[in-house]
Amino acid sequence: QLLHDIPTKPAARIAVIGGGIGGTAAAYFLHDLFGDEVLIDLYEPDHIGGRLATLSVAGQEYEAGGSVIHPANQYMKNFAAQFGLSHTTPCSESVGLFNGEDYVFTSSNIALVDFAKLFLRYGWDVYRLQKVPAAVLQDFIKIYKLQHEGQAFKDVASLLLAMSKEMLRMTQMSTTDWLMEQGFSPLTISELVMSALQCNYGQTPEMHAFVGLIALAGADSNLWSVEGGNKRVAEELLKHSRASLLRRRVAQVAHSTSTPRKFMVWSHEPDEPVEAEAAAMGQKDAAQETKETWREQEYDAVILATPLTQDSTKIQLVNFTQQFSFSGHYEPIETTIVRGVVRPESLMLNDDEMLDNILVINPRLMFNSFGRQQPVKGRKCDQEAVGVWKIFSPHKIPEDLLDIFFQRREVTHAISWLAYPHYSTNQTLGDFELAPGLYHLNAIEWAGSAMEMSVIGAKNVALLAYKQWKNDPDAGKKPPIKEEL
Ligand SMILES: CC(C)=CCC/C(C)=C/CC/C(C)=C/CSC[C@H](N)C(=O)O
């Protein structure tokens, strides 16, 4: 009887807005921290995985967005193991560095010959360029211990600072300046480094050095992907989080006027015209009708797991004491996937010299990279004449240009993404905690955008939400991992 009299706190109700790798990981970590003391709603009107997506070409699926994972990415590695997902590794492929007119380097199939060619052009920089990301990673992996021990950070700068002072400094200087400080030559930066940055972020070494180094880590020879598609991780995270998936689009998050520390989330069916839009278009009836299918729901905390920028944010934040301003913009990237036969001469190659991957060292070209793709399942690394090719470009590639690149096209798909932030050196890195109980996971993308970075952001905001709910800065703390002797 006595036990019945003890008042128990009701479960926390938390909204996660966005079903990409970050949002699904946040739901997973919330469930891990709160156990049965939480009810999670995850809002995602489109597919689970967000920028992790596959495209179907001739009955096979191909990665269309985030495609590679680094061997040191512990969260992604652990998720794959826990969910029984296997790794696939890239095929060993030929590569060329293209300036629009000519190739400054093309690989052969003999590793020693390639090293000699690269060494003749770039000297020891070739070797050192592989070592430099590894050195930064030594500091980066400290985040796993800090997060295991329950440390959480209200802003991105503090998270970087907890790993090392140097990481924060790197976000304030260009990749060029940082690498010059390390003694790299201008030629190495304008060719080798440029090609990795163009391929991974469609940007130049003017981007800040921390994300520049992530892009260089993205040229590691031991990268992997998830068999069946990287989006499989997001799907499994959602399943294991026990969150309710709401196929609705969120238009507004408001601080509750009646109950302190509560939030109202306004959402509508994905295909509905937003009321204001409908009214503006003079569709009075539509406006009335849509109003009726709108829903509001109260929450104790809200995690925004979607990019917020001044120019593209569709979610309004209202009734907060402070005015939020989100600066910067995301880089538009066009992904064109073609199944067909390439015309090598259109890429300044002889008929018998077609390369599997063309990386660019001239940022003014029509494309950022042009490469042969293997399906996400059962890759065979074949080199048949009819292949599937993926082109990343800053703008849509016109049909007549595709007809020049390909002598025959069986299938062509194009997707436009706002893929990652446009990086500079004077960017404010942003806050994870916008107000107590309101969190922005994607702030971490201003330090660097990659699957593992989103998962780190997810763990951080889940910890912040847990500490806030428990009203205890030590909540979620675990004893330190014992250092190996
Ligand atoms: C600070 C350093 C050197 C590394 C941090 C660890 C990390 C986040 C490594 C990721 C490397 C990687 C796979 C980069 C690819 S760039 C993003 C790309 N566009 C994609 O996701 O496909």
Automatic annotation (TrEMBL):
Segments forming domain Prenylcysteine lyase: 105-473
Cofactor(s) needed by this chain: FAD
MF annotations from Gene Ontology: prenylcysteine oxidase activity
GO BP annotations listed: prenylated protein catabolic process; prenylcysteine catabolic process
Residue ranges of coiled coil: none
Pfam families (alphabetical): NAD_binding_8 (PF13450), Prenylcys_lyase (PF07156)
Keywords from the named record: FAD, Flavoprotein, Glycoprotein, Oxidoreductase, Signal
Xref: PANTHER family: FARNESYLCYSTEINE LYASE, PRENYLCYSTEINE LYASE DOMAIN-CONTAINING PROTEIN
Family assignment from sequence similarity: Belongs to the prenylcysteine oxidase family.
Protein name: Prenylcysteine lyase domain-containing protein
Organism of origin: Scylla paramamosain
Source organism phylogeny: Eukaryota, Metazoa, Ecdysozoa, Arthropoda, Crustacea
